[in-house]
Design a protein that fits this description.
Helices cover 0% and strands 51% of the residues. By secondary structure, the chain is mostly beta strands.
């Protein structure tokens, strides 16, 4: 069982940056791929970014590449989402999620499962609200 608690959301202006954090409780944090999702008002929840259990590989939805950076600190059982140059359309509830890392290494390269999102995220946090004003 994994419990996730997000923090770091808030009310910001366009162009600002935020770093969201998600701290996990439970064992073997490094065996879980971690992800961030967001749900804007009136829209379905969408995958944003994922990081492998080791932290060595990341995946992003195309719309956030270059502005969002996911990372993790396994010693602190924490995953982060750095969001730069925030835009009003980034306004959403952001959720952290965990799923067993089922990626594979081959020839020193990590390969994500061929699924979308790239892990079976089974544990979810309560969410943290990000509101961006123009």
């Amino acid at each position: 069982q994994v419990q996730l608690v997000e923090s770091g959301g808030g009310l910001v202006k366009a162009g600002d940056s935020l770093r969201l954090s998600c701290t996990a409780s439970g064992r073997a944090f490094n065996t879980y791929a971690m992800g961030w999702f967001r749900q804007a008002p009136g829209k379905e929840r969408e995958f944003v970014a994922a990081v492998s259990g080791s932290g060595g590989s990341t995946r992003y939805v195309d719309s956030v590449k270059g502005r969002f950076t996911i990372s993790r600190d396994n010693a602190k059982s924490t995953v982060y989402l750095q969001i730069d140059n925030l835009k009003p359309e980034d306004t959403a509830e952001f959720y952290c999620a965990a799923g067993l890392d089922k990626g594979r290494y081959y020839d020193g390269n990590y390969y994500w499962p061929l699924t979308d999102p790239p892990a079976d995220f089974t544990y979810w946090g309560q969410g943290t609200q990000v509101t961006v004003t123009a």
